[in-house]
Design brief:
Blueprint (H helix, E strand, L loop, with lengths): L2 H14 L3 E3 L11 E3 L1 H20 L4 E3 L8 H6 L2 H4 L1 E6 L6 E3 L3 H4 L16 E4 L3 E3 L9 E3 L5 H6 L1 H7 L6 E10 L14 E11 L4 H18 L7 E5 L11 E9 L2 E12 L1 H10 L5 E2 L6 E2 L2 E8 H12 E6 L2 E6 L10 E5 L6 H14 L4 E3 L5 H11 L3 E5 L1 H6 L1 E6 L5 E5 L3 H15 L5
Parallel strand pairs: 3-9, 19-20, 19-21
Antiparallel strand pairs: 1-2, 4-5, 4-6, 7-8, 9-10, 10-16, 11-12, 12-13, 13-16, 14-15, 17-18, 21-22, 22-23
Helix pairs in contact: 2-10
Bound molecules: glycyl-adenosine-5'-phosphate (GAP).
Amino acid sequence: MADADVMDKLVSLAKRRGYIFQSSEIYGGTGSVWDYGPLGIELKRNVKERWWSSMVHQRDDIEGLDAAILMHPKVWEASGHVDGFTDPLVECSNCNRRFRADQPDIADGQCPVCGSKETFSEPRSFNLMFKTFMGPVEEQANVVYLRPETAQGSYVNFLNVQQSARQKVPFGIAQIGKAFRNEITPGNFIFRTREFEQMEMQFFVEPGTDDEWFERWKAERMEWHLSLGIRREKLRYHEHGPDELAHYAKTAVDIEYEYPFGWKEFEGIHNRTDFDLSRHEEHSGKRLEYIESHSGTRFIPYVIETAVGVDRTVLVTLCDAYREEEVDGDERVVLGLAPHIAPIKAAVFPLVKKDGMPEIAERIHADLRRSAINAFYDASGSIGRRYRRQDEAGTPFCITVDGQSTEDQTVTVRDRDSLEQVRVSADQLVTWIRDRVDEAAQAAGGAV
Ligand code: GAP
């Protein structure tokens, strides 16, 4: 299967099964903005909950924060985003389309849209921040930006969090939230979009210990990705060379994934030194240093940042899970999502719509839902078709109520991947499914 085909198939499966829809589709769509449907939002929530649990709930040295998207405009002057968060933009003189000057085909002198070898305009800096106005008057004094990263909210709240939570350095601040970038060349489905969500953690450390913490976080983050069930051979590190470093970073490494369109960034881990806190000190006139209680020593902490997109994680899990295979001469499409992140854990089918089977199936479905196991009831079409729909949706377990169920209250449970079928007592199903989901999480190396 050609790699380009995989992306097309994934986009169409995502729509068909209710994972992801193009934003404002009935109006022709909005460029590179996507909406998450009933299954997409569940997958997204599972990803976010696992990140939050591993960062905040399972550790005592990281606190959560939910800072606002709109911040004081001086924040973005201090952070360097007003001057430095730019991409070089060129325009094709033939079709007038605009591109990033550093795209490979542009560097080769050919327009990727019209193929023209006409000259491009001189590169000019294009700021990626979305600008808007606070209040009813649209003038320069009222400009605010939609944040391009959540990180700055953690820096300006560094002392608020440290003092209220009585944390000692080293400690971290974790946030999950929306970010916005007016990307010149968004694309590849939800890989690069203009509105997206980030899961970022800023870890404040004593200067001199930053290199060691950088290495620790680099390793921790790789383990987290593996805990989602992502294949190890599809992940690698990419150390940034001096010309790739963001304006705030001393060292940086990306965790890359091999997407159908090649190896590209999945997560960034950065040593941001004391750049951000020092700049906020300068620009706000407020001290942001940390005072060690036992020694009275003062310093501005260094920051090790881990930054990953929620949407990008969803894309990686979908790409990694997608497969086509033949079963008994029939083609099937499977989303082999790990059970602990799959949106629906179990589907419940009555074999036929009579002889008391729907009643038992409905009861099982209600039991599962009451126990907070996301389950789906389906009584329409042949069993084979119902299996195929759930295979595509990524549902790991399909429960069928058949004639025997009405006699002995057992059901068959079919495993999406091995296709094995076992009989389980209906009153044991909640525990049975929970155990399998927990086992999958443990096997992938993460806590439930
Ligand atoms: N605070 C640092 C920061 O924002 P980044 O490497 O620019 O660093 C971090 O972004 C992560 O956010 C990326 O690794 C990616 O997962 C996600 N991301 C960045 N830009 C994105 C975009 N336009 N669309 C989707 N995800 C994006």
